[in-house]
Amino acid sequence: MDGVSVEKMLKVPKDAGAVDVVDAAIAKFLQRPLQAEKKKALVEAIGEGPVRLGSRDDRRVLQMIGLLMSTPEYQMQ
Q: Does residue 49 come out as left (phi exceeding 0), alpha (psi in the -120 to 50 range) or beta?
């Protein structure tokens, strides 16, 4: 198994920006909106470089999902 396909899991195009990826993750994993400060922190966790969904060497999106899953909003699900 090659691992998780973030592109398929979040249903975003390969060229999606950091904000698009974070929005898709919030929609997938949370039942309510996330506070703006927390959303900003998730976008910053991905960083300013290109988001390379499907790339084996770019783990920033998976790390952001890990951060999202550590929020109280996710834990309350």
A: beta
